[in-house]
Amino acid sequence: MLIAEDLLLLLYNDETGKPIVGQPKLDYALGGALLIELTTLGKVDITSRANGERAGRLKVLDPSSTGDAILDDRLAYVVSKAGKKPKDILRGLSKQVRDQLLARLAERGILEADRDKVLGLFPVTRWPAKDAQHEGEVRAALESVLKVGTAPDQRTGALIALLSALDVVPKVITDAVDKRQLRARAKVIADSDWAAAAVKKAVAEMQAAMTASIVAASAAGASSS
């Protein structure tokens, strides 16, 4: 399972099959998760001044196949955009990824495609959980870190950082008594040293890129209305 797939499961309500966060936040977060995954695999890095390079640029380390079709497609896109800032490619990186991941999770029997029509006219597809075992394990790992204080592994740390950037941690960990404390704990985890330097750079860049892209999309929507 990809980090993006785990994130997608967390961001959809198991019963209603609807996302708990709207566009473009959800799509940008999924794109960011894919870039983080590529970094954890040693495929991509973010440049720094320490190496005599322009800081904050995409650098391809290994363009060979990851063995995952969706990830390979995004790796090819990053290769074509090498030298760009992560925020400048996030929209393209996120394009159609949600539909691809939802379809694949349904094929695996983890989600169910529930097709209907709104007012009997407009087609809509909801994605309720069909087999929530894996998602339950992911949630248990998140709760262990956020509520018990267990040190996060790289994957769980990345998920917490992305959820924190979206400001949806209390929507995912719904039984927490103090939501403010939960948000603060997630922020501390996101900023702590739970991953290799390259991955931490990717996470930080994705958090900044998501914020910038969401603000830009909101401004564009406001100006057109």
From TrEMBL:
GO terms for biological process: Golgi organization; Golgi to plasma membrane protein transport; Golgi vesicle budding; retrograde vesicle-mediated transport, Golgi to endoplasmic reticulum. Keywords: Golgi apparatus, Lipid-binding, Membrane. It is a peripheral membrane protein. It is found in: Golgi apparatus membrane. Its main location: Golgi. Gene3D superfamilies: yeast vps74-n-term truncation variant domain like. One of its GO terms (molecular function) is phosphatidylinositol-4-phosphate binding. This is GPP34 family phosphoprotein. It comes from the Bacteria. One of its GO terms (cellular component) is cytosol. It comes from Kribbella antibiotica. InterPro entries: GPP34-like, GPP34-like_sf.
